[in-house]
C-alpha cells in the first residue's frame, strides 16, 4: 500500500510539452525593420546577408534590414530539423545580447492579433506570417496546458494545426492535452497521424509508447520506446525499455481476464482456478460504489496485475513492506492466493481507491491525502493508541508549523478523518478537483475550506488533544 506513483504517460506528456514548446516555440523569430517577422528553422549570416531556412524554402535578406532576432532553444525540435543553427551574431562591445524574455500571455495575444491581421494586409508574406501564428498558438497552448486550462490548450493547438496540419509541436500538443483529459484513443490517433509526417521525431514515438503502455499494449509500447531511443538516445527512455522488458519477462505469459471496467492479469499456474472470477466480481461490485462516492468515472479499463510474492517485488522494485502499488495500474502480490480472503479484498479496495483519487485529481494529490482517503475507503479507522501518540506529539511541538508535515500512515488517516468530519467528504472531493485544475495543494485547501493547511493541521492537533488528553 505504498504511495501511488504517477503514471509515466502523464509525466512524459507534461515534460515533453514543456520541453518542446517553452518560449515562443522552436523557430527563431527574426524581426525586420519594416515590421515583418520571419520564423526560421535555421539561419546563417554570410557576406552581410542573413540566409533563413524554412520548411517552405530559403529566404535571403540583408543583415542591415534585421532589427533583432529572438532566439529559442534548438533542442526539442523534431528530428530532421537542421542541425547547423549557428551561434548568435557577435554582440556589440557593450556586452552579450540578453536572453529573450518569455512574453506574457497578453503580449503573445497582441502579437497573434497583429500576425492574423497581416495575413490579409500582406499576402506576399503569408508563409512567414503563418509560421509566426503557429508558433504563437503553440506557445499559448503550452502556457494554458501548464496552467491546467486544458480546454483552452486544446483550442490553441487545434487552431495551430488548422494553420499547419503538419506542425509537429501542434500535433504533440494536441496528443499531450488529449492524454491529460484521459482521452487516450484521441491521443493515440493524433500521434499515429503525426508520425506519418514526422517518422523520425523521437518525442512522438516516446509519447506513443506511453499511450500504448497505459493501454496494456506492451509489445507496441516497447517498439515505440525502442524506436525513440534509436532516434535520440535518452536515459529515461532507456530506463522504460529496461523496465518493460523486465515486466514482460515476469508477466508476459500471465493469463488475462476482462471485466466491464477492469483488465486482470495473473499467474494462472499459482492462483486458484476461480480466483480471476472472484477478483473481477469483487472489483466490479465496488466500482459503482466508488463512482458515486468520488463523483468520477474512469475513462478506460483499470489494469490489475496479481503477482506471486517474489515476482511482485522484482517487477515493481517496491520495498518488502509494501502490500500493493498503484502506478497507473493496480499491482498486488498474490503470495500463492487460492481464494479472495478479506485481507486480499482490503488491499484491492485500497489500491482501487488510489485509482479513483489519482483520476479525480489528475495525479496531483499529495501522498498524505492519497493514503488518508484510501485507508478511509478501505474501511480503516484510527485506533485510540495512534491518536494519543499524535496528540502527545502535537503538545510536544507546542504548535510548531512543522506539526503534521511529515508523512506516516496513521497521521494521514487521522487528519483525513478529521477533515471529513469537519468539512465533509464532499469538500475533499472539491480539493481534488481544484488540484486537477492546476491549483496547488495549499491554495486548493484555502479556496475550498477558507483555511490554510497550517491552520487545518493546528485545528486537527487541538481536536486530538481535546479528545484524548483532557
The gist of it:
By secondary structure, the chain is α+β, with helices and mostly antiparallel strands. The chain has helices spanning 8-21, 105-121, 126-146, 150-163, 168-180, 184-197, 202-214, 218-231, 235-251, 275-294, 309-316, 342-361, 367-378, 384-397, 409-423, 425-436, 441-449, 453-468; strands at 28-32, 37-40, 42-46, 49-54, 57-62, 66-70, 255-258, 262-266, 302-307, 325-326, 330-333.
Tag the structure with descriptive keywords:
Glutaredoxin, alpha+beta, Serine Threonine Protein Phosphatase 5, Tetratricopeptide repeat, 5-stranded mixed sheet, 470 residues, 3-stranded antiparallel sheet, 11 strands
Q: Can you describe what's shown?
A:
56% of the residues lie in helices and 11% in strands. It has 470 residues and is of the alpha+beta class. It has three domains: 10-246, Serine Threonine Protein Phosphatase 5, Tetratricopeptide repeat (Alpha Horseshoe); 253-363, Collagenase ColT, N-terminal domain (Glutaredoxin); 372-468, no CATH class. The strands form three sheets. Strands 7-8-9-11-10 form a five-stranded mixed sheet. A three-stranded antiparallel sheet has the order 2-1-6. It has a three-stranded antiparallel sheet with strand order 3-4-5, with no helix packed on it. The radius of gyration is 27 Å and the shape is globular. The two termini are 34 Å apart. The model is unreliable at 6-26 and 73-100 (pLDDT under 50).
Amino acid at each position: 500500500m505504498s504511495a501511488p506513483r504517477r503514471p509515466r504517460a502523464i509525466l512524459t506528456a507534461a515534460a515533453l510539452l514543456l520541453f518542446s514548446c517553452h518560449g515562443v516555440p522552436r523557430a527563431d523569430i527574426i524581426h525586420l525593420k519594416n515590421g515583418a517577422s520571419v520564423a526560421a528553422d535555421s539561419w546563417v549570416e554570410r557576406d552581410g546577408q542573413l540566409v533563413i531556412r524554412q520548411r517552405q524554402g530559403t529566404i535571403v535578406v540583408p543583415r542591415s534590414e534585421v532589427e533583432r532576432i529572438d532566439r529559442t532553444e534548438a533542442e526539442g525540435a523534431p528530428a530532421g530539423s537542421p542541425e547547423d543553427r549557428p551561434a548568435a551574431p557577435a554582440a556589440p562591445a557593450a556586452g552579450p545580447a540578453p536572453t529573450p524574455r518569455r512574453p506574457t500571455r497578453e503580449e503573445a495575444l497582441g502579437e497573434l492579433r497583429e500576425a492574423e491581421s497581416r495575413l490579409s494586409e500582406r499576402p506576399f508574406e503569408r508563409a512567414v506570417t503563418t509560421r509566426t501564428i503557429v508558433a504563437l498558438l503553440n506557445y499559448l497552448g503550452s502556457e494554458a496546458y501548464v496552467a491546467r486550462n486544458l480546454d483552452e490548450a486544446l483550442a490553441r493547438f487545434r487552431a495551430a494545426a488548422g494553420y499547419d496540419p503538419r506542425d509537429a509541436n501542434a500535433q504533440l500538443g494536441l496528443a499531450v492535452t488529449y492524454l491529460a483529459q484521459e482521452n487516450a484513443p484521441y491521443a493515440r490517433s493524433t500521434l499515429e497521424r503525426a508520425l506519418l509526417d514526422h517518422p523520425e521525431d523521437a518525442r512522438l514515438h516516446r509519447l506513443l509508447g506511453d499511450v500504448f503502455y497505459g493501454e496494456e499494449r506492451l509489445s507496441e509500447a516497447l517498439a515505440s520506446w525502442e524506436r525513440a531511443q534509436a532516434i535520440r538516445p535518452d536515459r529515461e527512455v532507456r530506463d522504460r525499455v529496461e523496465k518493460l522488458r523486465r515486466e514482460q519477462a515476469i508477466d508476459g505469459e500471465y493469463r488475462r481476464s476482462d471485466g466491464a471496467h477492469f483488465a486482470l492479469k495473473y499467474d494462472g499456474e499459482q492462483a486458484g482456478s476461480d480466483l480471476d472470477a472472484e477478483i473481477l466480481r469483487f472489483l466490479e461490485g465496488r466500482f459503482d460504489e466508488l463512482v458515486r462516492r468520488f463523483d468520477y468515472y474512469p475513462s478506460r479499463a483499470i489494469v490489475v496485475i496479481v503477482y506471486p510474492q517474489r515476482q511482485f517485488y522484482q517487477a515493481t522494485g517496491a520495498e518488502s513492506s509494501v502490500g500493493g502499488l498503484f502506478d497507473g495500474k493496480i499491482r498486488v502480490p498474490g503470495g500463492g492466493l487460492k481464494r479472495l480472503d478479506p485481507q486480499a479484498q482490503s488491499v484491492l479496495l485500497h489500491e482501487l481507491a488510489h485509482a479513483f483519487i489519482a483520476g479525480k485529481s489528475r495525479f496531483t494529490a499529495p501522498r498524505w491525502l492519497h493514503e488518508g482517503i484510501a485507508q478511509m475507503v478501505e474501511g480503516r479507522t484510527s485506533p485510540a493508541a495512534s491518536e494519543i501518540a499524535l496528540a502527545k506529539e502535537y503538545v510536544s511541538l507546542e504548535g510548531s508549523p512543522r506539526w503534521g508535515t511529515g508523512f506516516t500512515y496513521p497521521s494521514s488517516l487521522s487528519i483525513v478523518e478529521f477533515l471529513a468530519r469537519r468539512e465533509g467528504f464532499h469538500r475533499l472531493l472539491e480539493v481534488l478537483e481544484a488540484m486537477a485544475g492546476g491549483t496547488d495543494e495549499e491554495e486548493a485547501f484555502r479556496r475550498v475550506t477558507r483555511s490554510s493547511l497550517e491552520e487545518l493541521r493546528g485545528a486537527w492537533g487541538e481536536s486530538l488533544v481535546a479528545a484524548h488528553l483532557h
